[in-house]
Write a structure and sequence with these properties.
Layout (H helix, E strand, L loop, with lengths): L1 H15 L7 H11 L4 E6 L11 H13 L2 E7 L8 E2 L4 E2 L7 H8 L4 E3 L10 E4 L4 H4 L4 H4 L7 H12 L4 E3 L32
Parallel strand pairs: 1-2, 1-6, 2-5, 6-7
Antiparallel strand pairs: 3-4
InterPro entries: Class_I_gatase-like
GO cellular component, one term: mitochondrion
Protein name: Glutamine amidotransferase class 1 domain containing 3
Length: 203
């Protein structure tokens, strides 16, 4: 019975402790020590809504599958203004309206959103960027500048830090967040299709 109570208290602390509170180090230690098979991942969001922010279906699907795999997933977003606001019922930009990427991303994260400027790569095992036009409009200037786009400074820092640490970086159809001026990996924009036999599928 004692072990059950202790385990329950630990899980409550892990679940409800703010990662930036004075108990954050205790939280991380307990997660690593007790839930030794738990991975720490994060999603970087770009707003809320496919046409001017994060593709909500992708963000939710990523969260579901990572959680089922035993991962602890936090949500981050830059504290910046959106490029513009799109009326999703018409697919057209809204007149004289502005929104904040962090504030809008909090809708997907149920309020538990963290400013990307506070992210430290050492605290996580991998990072995932869900799709949506927000990646091209808010996380970068791809929608305007194409292959010559610039990447948000905090997004660029995160990409470089995770790449330097040899940690996985996941992108959902938003390859332009890692252009040559960020990681030195992509030298042209385009696709090459290779037809291969499917031998298995893993999610």
């Amino acid at each position: 019975m004692r072990d059950f109570i202790v385990d329950a208290m630990i899980r409550i602390l892990i679940k409800y402790c703010d990662p930036f509170s004075k108990f954050s180090k205790v939280r991380r230690y307990l997660e690593k020590a007790i839930l030794f098979d738990l991975y720490f991942l994060l999603q970087v969001l770009s707003g809320c809504g496919v046409y001017d922010g994060t593709e909500i279906h992708e963000a939710a699907a990523i969260m579901v599958h990572l959680s089922r795999g035993g991962a602890n997933v936090d949500m981050y977003a830059p504290n910046i203004s959106q490029m513009h606001v799109v009326d999703h019922s018409r697919g057209q930009p809204a007149d004289r309206e502005s929104r904040n990427v962090l504030t809008e991303s909090a809708r997907i994260a149920r309020g538990k959103i963290i400013d990307l400027a506070r992210l430290a790569a050492r605290d996580y095992d991998a990072v995932v960027f869900p799709g949506g036009f927000g990646a091209a409009k808010n996380l970068s200037t791809f929608s305007v500048d194409g292959k010559d786009c610039k990447v948000n400074k905090d997004v660029e820092r995160v990409l470089k830090d995770f790449h330097k640490s040899g940690k996985p970086i996941g992108h959902c159809l938003i390859f332009f967040l890692a252009p040559k001026n960020t990681l030195g990996l992509i030298f042209r924009v385009g696709l090459i299709y290779l037809w291969c036999q499917i031998v298995g599928v893993s999610v």
